[in-house]
Design goal:
The strands form 2 sheets. This protein has a two-stranded antiparallel ribbon with strand order 1-4. A two-stranded antiparallel sheet has the order 2-3. The longest helix has 48 residues, at 140-187. It has one domain (2-314). 44% of the residues are buried. Strand 2 (265-267) and strand 3 (270-272) form a beta hairpin. Helices cover 72% and strands 3% of the residues. The protein has 316 residues and is mainly alpha-helical. It has helices at 2-17, 21-27, 30-45, 52-80, 84-95, 101-116, 120-127, 140-187, 199-208, 210-223, 227-237, 247-257, 286-314; strands at 261-262, 265-267, 270-272, 276-277.
Length: 316
C-alpha cells in the first residue's frame, strides 16, 4: 500500500509542475539517460550484416541490460530510504519524473490550439512531436485523429502503466517499466534494422501493457459515463487494431467522443491500411481534441481517487 501511496505522490507532483525546463537543461530527463544507453548498446550489438539470430540475441541482451540498469539503482535507492511517511514521499519524488501526465496534456493541447485557428502548418509541426507518421500528408481531420490517438495510447503507456507497475513493485517497478517502454519506442519497430533486434523489447512491452491498456480503456469509459457502451466498443474494435494494447484506450476514447480513429496512415513512402476504430462515426476536429483532454483528466481523477481512499483507509 505504501508503493501505491508513493505513486499518488508522483502523479500529484507531475500534475502540478511536470518536469521543469531548468531540470531538463541541467540533468536532462531519466528517459534521455535510458535512451542514451539503448543507443550505445544498439550500435554495438546490432551490427549491419549480422544474422537475424545474432541480432535477436543482441536484442534480448539489450532488453535485459537496460531493464537491469534502470531497476537496479531504483531497488538500491528504495532500500536506503526510511520507512513510513518520509519514505513514501521520497519514493514518490524519485518516481515523479517517470510519470508523463502533464507533458502529455501539454503536447496534445499544443496541437488543438493552431488547429482550431486554422493554422495547419503549425498543427502539423505540433502533432509531429507526438506521432511517428508523416504529418505533411495529414489534413485537419487527420491531425485531430493523430492527436487523439496519441492521447489515448499515451494515457496508458505514459501515465497509467508506470503508475500501475509502480504501485505493484515500487520504485524498481516503475523504473523497469519505463525502460521497457523506451526500448519499444526506440527499437521495437518492424523495419529491416530492428525486426530481429527489437523483437524481444516489442514483445515484452506488449506483455507489460496488457493490464494497464485495458484499465485505461475502462477508466476512459467510466469518465465518459458510458461504461457499457465503452466496453462494447472495446470488445468490438480493439481485437482488430494493429496493436494488442493500443486499441483498448483508443476504442474507449473514440466511443466517448463519437468519432472514428485509426484507419489508413502514411509512414514515409509506406501506407499502412489499418481499419478504423468506431468506423461508422464522423471524423474528429479541434474541438474533439479538447473534449478528449477533458476526458483524460477525469480518467486520471478516477484512477487516483479510489487509490487515495484505500490508502487513507489502510493507514499506509
Amino acid at each position: 500500500m505504501s508503493a501505491a501511496a508513493a505513486m499518488l505522490v508522483a502523479l500529484a507532483v507531475d500534475a502540478a509542475i511536470g518536469w521543469p525546463r531548468a531540470f531538463f537543461a541541467r540533468i536532462r530527463h531519466p528517459v534521455v539517460w535510458i535512451g542514451a544507453l539503448i543507443t550505445a548498446l544498439e550500435q554495438r550489438l546490432n551490427r549491419e550484416g549480422a544474422s537475424a539470430r545474432r541480432r535477436r540475441l543482441g536484442g534480448i541482451a539489450t532488453l535485459l541490460l537496460v531493464t537491469a540498469a534502470a531497476a537496479g539503482p531504483a531497488l538500491l535507492v528504495e532500500a536506503l530510504l526510511p520507512a513510513g511517511l518520509a519514505g513514501v514521499l521520497l519514493v514518490g519524488l524519485f518516481a515523479w519524473p517517470l510519470v508523463a501526465a502533464r507533458a502529455l496534456d501539454a503536447h496534445v493541447a499544443a496541437v488543438a490550439r493552431p488547429l482550431a485557428a486554422g493554422d495547419l502548418a503549425a498543427a502539423r509541426a505540433a502533432v509531429a512531436m507526438i506521432v511517428g507518421r508523416d504529418p505533411e500528408a495529414l489534413d485537419a481531420a487527420g491531425i485531430a485523429r493523430a492527436a487523439i490517438e496519441s492521447l489515448a495510447e499515451n494515457a496508458s503507456d505514459g501515465v497509467v502503466a508506470p503508475l500501475f507497475w509502480g504501485a505493484l513493485l515500487g520504485l524498481p517497478g516503475i523504473a523497469a517499466y519505463k525502460a521497457v517502454n523506451t526500448l519499444d519506442s526506440m527499437i521495437g519497430h518492424r523495419s529491416e534494422r530492428f525486426a530481429a533486434f527489437g523483437w524481444a523489447s516489442a514483445r515484452f512491452d506488449d506483455l507489460v501493457n496488457l493490464a494497464p491498456a485495458r484499465l485505461t480503456g475502462l477508466l476512459l469509459a467510466l469518465a465518459a459515463g458510458r461504461p457499457r457502451a465503452g466496453l462494447a466498443a472495446m470488445l468490438r474494435d480493439a481485437p482488430r487494431h494493429r496493436s494488442p494494447n493500443a486499441g483498448w484506450p483508443e476504442a474507449a476514447m473514440a466511443d466517448a467522443l463519437g468519432v472514428r480513429l485509426s484507419g489508413p496512415r502514411r509512414y514515409g513512402a509506406r501506407i499502412a491500411e489499418e481499419p478504423y476504430v468506431n468506423a461508422g462515426a464522423r471524423d474528429p476536429g479541434a474541438a474533439d481534441i479538447g473534449a478528449g483532454l477533458r476526458l483524460y483528466r477525469r480518467a486520471l481523477v478516477l484512477l487516483a481517487a479510489p487509490v487515495a481512499l484505500l490508502v487513507a483507509w489502510w493507514g499506509m
